Amino acid sequence: MVTHQELIFRQLLTLQDGTRVLLRPLATDDRQPLADLYSAATFEERRYMHYEVRDPKVVAAWVEHLDHSKVMHLVAVVGDRIVGDATLIFGHGPERHRAQVFIFLAKDFRRRGLGNRMLQALIEIARQRNLYLLEAQIIHDQTSFIKAFQSLGFEAKCTLEDYFMPPDGELWNVVLMILRLRSPNEEF
């Protein structure tokens, strides 16, 4: 269940270079700025994504069907521009104790600490929702991403062989990264 606190969540960050960034939940009027963020995704970046994000219909569907109880998009905004999208996809039924994490940043906002700060905000939201686990699936040769998630407490639990197939049909191994937020013996 989405809380009022999550819907009004705002966090103002100052990056090391002085750039001020607002973190907030995705809103219904964010369709074009979000489409602009993803339209700059290169072919190589899109190979790692689950959706064809350069298709305006895909982004439009995300915005038009916002349901923060199922998917929580946290966007990073500079002026009128969305420069990052960090997402929690909440499990349901027997998976209701966990969420999957995804993140995408504009090229000019990478390696500036923004991704780390966005993930920290998602972790806090997940804790507020009393989740037990966060999960990230990272292609095994993306070692810098694996190290970044490890720096936030995620652990590499296993490598899933031939688990991801990009559009060209090649098979890639995926590292399953888990962050435990609560002990399993705590009351649910």
Describe this structure in words.
There is one protein chain. This protein has 188 residues and is an alpha+beta fold. The protein has a single domain (4-180), classed as Aminopeptidase (3-Layer(aba) Sandwich). The protein has helices at 4-7, 31-39, 43-46, 56-64, 114-128, 143-151, and strands at 11-14, 20-25, 71-78, 81-90, 98-105, 133-139, 155-164, 172-180. Strands 1-2-3-4-5-6-8-7 form an eight-stranded mixed beta sheet, sandwiched between helices. It is globular.
Topology:
Blueprint lengths: L3 H4 L3 E4 L5 E6 L5 H9 L3 H4 L9 H9 L6 E8 L2 E10 L7 E8 L8 H15 L4 E7 L3 H9 L3 E10 L7 E9 L8
Parallel strand pairs: 5-6
Antiparallel strand pairs: 1-2, 2-3, 3-4, 4-5, 6-8, 7-8
Helix pairs in contact: 2-4
Nutshell version of this structure?
By secondary structure, the chain is of the alpha+beta class. The chain is 27% helix and 33% strand.
